[in-house]
Amino acid sequence: MRIQGTLLWGLLAPALGLMALFYVVPLGVYFLNSFHLFRDGRIIPVWTLATYVEFFTDPFSYRIIGRSLQLAVIVTSLTILVAYPVAYALHTRVARPGVRAALALLLFSPLMVSVVVRTYGWLILLANQGLVNTLLRAARVIETPLTLLFNMPGVVISLTHIFLPFAIFPMYSVMGKLDLTLKEAARDLGAGWWDTFTHITLPLTMPGVVAAALICFTLSLSAFVTPQLLGGGRVQVLPLAVYNSTVEINWPAGAVAGLVLLVLSILAVRALNAVIRRLPGV
Amino acid sequence: MAPDAPSRGAEVEVRAITKRFGAVVAVRSVSFVIRGGEFFSLLGPSGCGKTTTLRVIGGFEHADEGEVAIGGTPMGRTPPNRRPTNMVFQRLALFPHYTVFENVAFGLRMKRLPEEEIRQRVGEALELVQMPGLAGRKISELSGGQQQRVALARALVNRPRVLLLDEPLSSLDLKLRLQMQEELKRLQRELGTTFVSVTHDPGEALAMSDRVGVMDSGILHQVGAPMEIYERPRNRFVANFIGDANLIDGVVQGTDGDTVAVRAGGVVVRARRAGWEQIGQTLTVCVRPERIQIGAAADLPNAFRGRVEDWAFSGSMVKYRLAAGPVRLHAAVPYLNGAPLFQVGEEVAAGWDPMQAVLVPTEAAAPGAGGGP
User: Is there a domain that residue B186 lies in?
Assistant: First the structure.
């Protein structure tokens, strides 16, 4: 036991060391800073709740929080809506393992491109004279170009795109564990495709959906580069507020906004975990 | 047969169905008719095509050739949800996220029946399978036997014309299995529903069914009442698969009235005439171990002398292995108090009533069929 214990800690040490050095310590510094004061371009190391009071009494803070939650909810919903059918198709329609592996690689390929490069790609695609608008106009879907840049739709499109693999794979893996004879049993008992889907497949794959939602929600909430570059300053979310404050050396304000972001993420994780635990058949 | 279960004629007609999975032929041109209100079993070793045949009847697979008609209506590519059949799945396939009640109610809900009727019929179905009072339970809280009953209730509540059972009892232990065999038979008799069961267990098929179809390698070898296929197996496979059989290869010497004499090694054995045998033909005599008499009881025209090579006691029977020249015989004699026990090495008379032995072709399979397993 003793040797095992030593070995265990030895194996855990690198990860724990990294976590302590780059997560716990900065978080502590952050936490301490949130109780300091920023006045006239300087941090005053006094102990006060003034920065919190400022944050929570400023209506602008609530707009930012609202925007962040709105973005996270929209992106999460859209991602799930797009990803679920993909996972379902991958699960039910692709039988050959080789094809499956190739499709999986394709789905993961957006992650191989740096976020900055990808975002500039979107800038080109979504511009007024960009590919999306050109195609839509050529197809006579629209007359005047849609404004897809430096606003919410642009950010939503880009985030949904990049979060797709994070949503597809949890759902796909849960679908893989679904006993296919349950679907046959439902068919046998008179259920058509839709009833089988809504009564059997969907409820039994909900754990995958919730897991995917959890990932997408927390990732959207903390997304920074995309809202920064594609939002054009019009999509004010918490990570941007943190960044802006930090750039202005206003660490206390940045710390407060950052902690609010952390609390929101924790609440989201807890809420969705509670949902998972209450799911039927788990 | 119970008087309230009248034969309704051909309920399920399977017409020359063939089913391939890639290069594998799972079912080869299989035809048979299941009568209304009968308990029919498809029996065979695993991979013989019996489950595939059942799934074709249920609409879960489509035959590459041939077709299935239920109640006189050709089914074509009708999906399972629009067939007058319900299935009890091998691994039961109960819905884990539903209670017992919701599982049983599922089929009725799909028919959009009023809640009142659903409640009543689910209650009746659970009573029928002797599971009242457990409607609110989760599936995971039930024992194997209880889950089996819920699966039955879930299918029967829909009042199918034909109930399909895919190895329905294979997940149960022996004692429970025997109990559920009786239960299934009782249900079938009470409801008069046509049951089509698939099993690899000959005992189960013989015990439960009105008629049995014996399959192997995708071929349906024989269809008949349990006693008929036991008494008159059509080939070696059927003879071997259903119960124990002595299979003695020999050459036809001549016929005498209803019997035929076959020379096997140095011994002449007699069997009931089949009609297709010819003098000089090589064929196989099949005789069941319990039909062989030994000792004084073997005072028969068809007796010869053999030596006891081994014996084993199994409670109700004593099983002897005899050697008569090159011929090896298994004989099973009921163990009665005080019955004489022959010893290893002892010379005994052995024989059987020629009418109790049947002829089968020496080759395993019927004409046009491939080899055995």
Answer: yes
pLDDT at position A204 is 92
Judge if B212 and B249 occupy the same domain: no
pLDDT, tens digit (0-9, with 9 covering 90-100), for A154-187: 899 999 999 999 999 999 999 988 888 999 999 9
- Cα–Cα dist B349/B307, whole Å: 8
What integer pLDDT is reported at residue A196 of this predicted model?
94
Over residues B168-191, mean pLDDT: 89
The rounded distance, in Å, linking the Cα atoms of A191 and B101 is: 17
Q: B89 to chain A: which residues are within 8 Å by CB? A: 181, 184-185
- Answer yes or no: do B227 and B287 share one domain: no
Are A188 and B86 an interchain contact pair (Cβ–Cβ within 8 Å)?
yes
- B230 and B261, same domain (yes or no): no
Q: CATH no. for residue A69?
A: 1.10.3720.10
Q: If you count residue pairs, one on A and one on B, with CB atoms under 8 Å apart, how many are there?
A: 62
Q: Cβ A179–B93 below 8 Å, yes or no?
A: yes
Look up the CATH number of the domain holding residue B250: 2.40.50.140
Question: Tell me: the pLDDT tens digits for B23-38?
Answer: 999 999 999 999 999 9
Give the best residue of B21, B101, B110, B167 to mutate against chain A (max A CB count within 10 A). B110
Q: Do A280 and B97 touch (CB under 8 A)?
A: yes
Q: Are B15 and B94 found together in one domain?
A: yes
Tell me which of B196, B214, B236 is where a domain ends.
B236
Q: Please provide the average confidence, as pLDDT, over all residues in chain B.
A: 89
How far apart, in whole angstroms, are the C-alpha atoms of residue A201 and residue B249? 57
Q: Is residue B196 located within the same domain as residue B324?
A: no
pLDDT on residue B372: 35
Q: Are residues B317 and B349 in the same domain?
A: yes
Give chain A positions within 8 Å (CB) of B91.
Answer: 179, 181
Give the total number of structural domains in chain B. Answer: 2
Domain range enclosing B303: 244-360
Number of domains in chain A: 1
Q: Identify the burial level of B140 via C-beta atoms within 10 angstroms of its C-beta, where 0-12 means exposed, 13-18 middle and 19 or more buried.
A: exposed
Please report the DSSP string for A145-210 in residue order: PP--SSSHHHHHHHHHHHHHHHHHHHHHHHHHTS-HHHHHHHHHTT--HHHHIIIIIHHHHHHHHH
**pLDDT tens digits along A83-129:** 999 999 888 888 788 888 888 888 888 888 888 888 888 888 888 88
A76 to each of A69, A103, A162, A223, B152, how far by Cα in Å?
10, 22, 11, 12, 42
Instruction: Determine the structural domain holding residue A183 and report its residue range.
Output: 60-278
B155-179: average pLDDT: 91
